[in-house]
Amino acid sequence: MRTLNIDFVNADKSDVILADTQELDRKLLETQRTLYNLEEEKKEIQKGSCIKCRKCSTISQIRNLGYRQIHYYVRPSGCTEGDYWAESAGEVICPNCKIVIRLYDIPKIMELKWLFKNIDKVYDHR
Hints:
The chain is α+β, with helices and mostly antiparallel strands. It folds into two domains: 8-46, no CATH class; 50-124, no CATH class. The protein has two helices and eight strands, in the order ββαβββββαβ. The chain has a four-stranded mixed β-sheet with strand order 7-6-5-8, with no helix packed on it. Strands 1-2 form a two-stranded antiparallel ribbon. The mean pLDDT is 82.
């Protein structure tokens, strides 16, 4: 366990003593900047993730593909629940053969969803 050396200073005339946290605040700000930069770097790396078409074997980076988020209608049930639109699996269209590639709600794919070139919301009115 690491011990922090904190200098105490008088805050005012009422005998309240506050810790001087300027150095820790500076380190915290520096760490937050580093974390932000690492998250941005991770996003750039993730944008290089690819999807392979099962029909024509074309490999496309997700940064170049549009994501279609399918929504389906849920009818009201009971006395208090209203109707609403729920998200279903997403899709991308192969740029080469134009086949629809369905992406199921796998947590890893859902994490990458925001890195596609664009997201189109499609409402299924069946």
